[in-house]
Amino acid sequence: MRIQYVLVEALNNIRRNGLVVLGAVVAVFISLFLTFGTLVFGEIARVNTLQWSEDVRVIAFLSDDFHDAPELLATVQSWPEVDEAFYMSKPEAAEEAKELLTGAARRQYEENPSLAPASIRVRPVDLNDYETIERNLQNAPGVFKVASAADAVQQIAAIRDGLNVFFWVLALALGAAAVALIANTIHMAIYARREELEIMRLVGASNWFVRTPFLIEGVLEGIVGAGLSVAAVTGLYHLARDRLQALPEFINLAIDSAFLVRWGVLILVFGAVVGFLGSSLSLAVHRYVRS
To answer: Could you give the CA distance from residue 50 to residue 35 in angstroms, rounded to a whole number?
Structure first.
């Protein structure tokens, strides 16, 4: 009977303060919509950064009189910093140059393909490993030059790390804003029923008997707002992915559906926690429900 009472009271509070509750739900929705949207955008950025980083290579150009390329390749592949390494022969390098170059530079390789040196192409395990790989290759036998996209690598790593920090800071800030909004809503509901709550306290109602309906109200507001935000972000993501098929190949909007499910559930849980914390914060400071 007591459980039924607190549930009915929570629903009555929501019904009596419909506009205030709607404002709280909308506030939670906006906060968690931005939070979840930020996480989805961050995942898209992470996937694309990872995809771009896979194209980064450290290239070791080999002397024409060097004949131990297989042994050097095996040595490079054994380094812990190396994710992938392969050998490119002189004819293959000449064909690559013809594809990449135009005009006089291309004609030069068409007339004399032997100008293109053989090389070993190395992909690092992590973007930050390219310096170690470059240093080791410079000391390797048969290597006369080492080239790498050092500046591009540093920029990609900085963008990746900066985006991760930005997305998490923004998500935490928006979550804290949602807690404050729920607390303000519960505060308004308590103030509207202050006389009734004083009477309940005078006739001996316990703290939890008075507080539980407000806690449930806050949790419900948080869950509803979070559910709406998850539905909105997921729907907008699928709409954008389907409508933006003509984007360049180097921009990839596809992310793992497990990411959406995992974070969608966490956002719902976070919404409930936000509602509970907001209600608890308001109840802790309100004189009508304190001992």
So the answer is: 22
